[in-house]
Write a structure and sequence with these properties.
Length: 542
Amino acid sequence: MGSELGVHADSQPGIMINGVTIWWACWTCIWTAVVALGITYLIVHRNSPTLRIRGLGFSLSAIVFLHIYWASVQLGLMYGPLFPGDCEYWLMGTWLPCGLAIFHASNSRFLHVAKHQKKFAWSSSRLVDSPHDREHKTGLTGRFLRLSYTTKILIVVGISVFFQLFLTVLMWVISRKWHSSWGIPGTEVHGTQMEQKMEMGRGWEWWPGVLMQVVWSWIIAPVVLWRSRSIRDTQGWRIQTIGCAISSLHATPMWLIATYVPAMEPLSRYWLPPQWICLSIVFIEIFTIFVPCWEVMRHQALRQETLDSIAQWELKTKGGKGSESKSLTSGSTMVGSLLSGFTSLNKNSSQEGILTLGALETVLERNPAPLQEFSALNDFSGENIAFLKSDSNIKKLDCDHFNRALHIYAEFISTSHAEFPINISSQDLNKLAAIFDRPARLLYGEPEQGVNPISPFDSPRGFPFEPPSPTSSEGSEKTIHDIKNRIQYCGEVPEEFDASVFDDAEASIKYLVLTNTWPKFIRSNRVSIDSSSTIVVGKEIV
């Protein structure tokens, strides 16, 4: 049996040039270029709602680690005889487990987001338990639980990577396979240079890398699969998570079989044992890079389709009362169906009217619950609908007008306090921050460090004091509501504050919902309905 990189006792030192090695070199260059283009596309479109919530920092970092390991294996047949005997050992003991750890940390974000978006689905579920339960937890455990999700996952990944590196270094130190002058007696290898390299490429010393692959692929990944079984999202995130988890299951067993079963020797001369691991890496890259790219393209196409439908509707309604009446009569039935308890739509009916802002505002005003539930549980954008509902309520308040607005800012807009900040322009964000940021910091406390408004999940957040931080992954919404019920701001109200303070942000979020969540919601409810159902368009009921 040969080594990890196909080195045999009869291998000649030097670069191996033949049809097989040339094929693998060309494949490496082509696939690397494709992956680089995909990563570039994701970075360019990082502000897309589909990508903002994913946290590209983790996933792309994992891809870089995994791809470096992948490329070293693809070129193994060509450069294997030239590589040092312990080269592949270090690659498999460092780059591969680091990439897998970061990748599964990124993958677990799916469950975190799905869990915490549930608080936007039903207003009664926003306060699951009392934040005081968390205040009683002291010591390292309490401090860890109060950290933000990103910080906690970084700590877990850091510990696992450190443990992996420690075991890898320990095995290298105690075995004389790679250094004959020191180590445990009896572990050294003998023979020619190629015979020694062949033995260095396999053996019991490799168990730390195998163990971590088993942990991530056969323990962590199935747990993620099981916990995500009931989630149905519109972002393609569940498909990505399931695909990556399943594609990794074969890697370690097939690597062991190809390395230690003599019957696999003929195949291993063309398909190296670690190629089975690299096959899973290719699928991980497909699901992590190109599925999100496809989702971004779908989002752009859906947005343009919605804008075109609105334009067609406006042309119809400008034709006069007759054409408007005809359009209304033959138009969509979704709003009326929702308001009357149905959730279906005639596939043959026109949908221009239902995609208008008036139809969206009607649902928000009369029966927002189905849309709110869909946006939170399926589209992972529940903060948008919750903000629109809260903003509509603020205009009805008097004495606690500013306090209500301040809580809305902290819950949905502030990048320091909101767990899911809504996606508004930096100009609108800065304008609102100038009004509310100082009172919010007085009421909710100072964060240890800020976050990137463009990618709020990529930066750790946290507060150094009790009660727990509004940015804590478990207690943000509960803490804000607890403070809202107990404390009111009594300081000076900024002169810039008035009843229209959120109008620009509201218009921005309505446009985002109109071109993203709303058409998805309509499509999800597009099934047959009786043609005589009530039709509601804008403010009119036909």
